[in-house]
Amino acid sequence: MATVTELLKDPALVGVWTLDADRSTIRFNNRTMWGAMKVNGAFTDFSGDGQITDTGTLSGRVDIKAASLNTKLSKRDEDLRSPTFLDVEKYPDISVVVTGAEPGSGETLELRADLTVKGATAPMPMRAKVTVHDDGAVRVTARTTVNRKKWGVTGNMLGMVGDKTTLSTELVFRRAGG
């Protein structure tokens, strides 16, 4: 496996890359019940793309339909979609915009990204692992923990919902047109 630095300098990788949603996942979890349990969920409707320039810079965007969240418990999903939490009627989209990246060690990238939830945008730096598949697709795996209140997601249901949410992604990108 080449290092990320070598990959970003490869002229064959320059261009637009499209997110393959069928091979990708966007998950979240949050501690509840005063930290005794975790609520796990996923977003099922999302799209995105990225670009590598001939100078080796990287940018991209992932758009998530907030209403597509699924924790496998319909009443909880309704609560999370409500104005108390994500307010999906007023703010139907969540977005992550990557504005740059620095190669880390080996297969990692240090991403500079902004997360927008409920109309509030704030930096969300994260480390990502990059893997090139035999079919030419590139998998970007990242995990970060955020304080949900920074984005106005303040619902708490009797003090049972923790402030920290962990976001985990496995995103597969394919060359546009390929």
Tell me about this structure.
It is a single chain. With 178 residues, the chain is mainly β. The chain has a single domain, classed as Lipid/polyisoprenoid-binding, YceI-like (Lipocalin, Beta Barrel). Helix content is 7%, strand content 51%. It is built from 2 helices and 12 strands, in the order H-E-E-E-E-E-E-H-E-E-E-E-E-E. An 8-stranded antiparallel β-barrel has the order 1-4-5-7-8-10-11-12. A hairpin with a 4-residue loop joins strand 2 and strand 3. The longest helix is centred in the middle third of the chain and has 8 residues. The protein is elongated. 25% of the residues are buried. The model has no long low-confidence stretch (mean pLDDT 88).
What characteristics describe this protein?
51% strand, 12 strands, mainly beta, Lipocalin, single chain, 2 helices, elongated, 178 residues
Uncertain segments are none
* Count of folded domains: 1
CATH homologous superfamily title = Lipid/polyisoprenoid-binding, YceI-like
Amount of beta strand: over 45%
CATH domain class: Mainly Beta
Number of helices: 2
Helix content: under 10%
Describe the protein's topology.
Layout: H1 4-8, E1 15-19, E2 25-32, E3 37-43, E4 46-52, E5 58-65, E6 69-70, H2 74-81, E7 93-103, E8 108-117, E9 120-123, E10 126-132, E11 138-147, E12 164-175
Antiparallel strand pairs: 1-4, 1-12, 2-3, 2-12, 3-6, 4-5, 5-7, 7-8, 8-9, 8-10, 10-11, 11-12
Describe, in short, the structure shown.
This protein has one domain: Lipocalin. Helices cover 7% and strands 51% of the residues. The chain has helices at 4-8, 74-81, and strands at 15-19, 25-32, 37-43, 46-52, 58-65, 69-70, 93-103, 108-117, 120-123, 126-132, 138-147, 164-175.
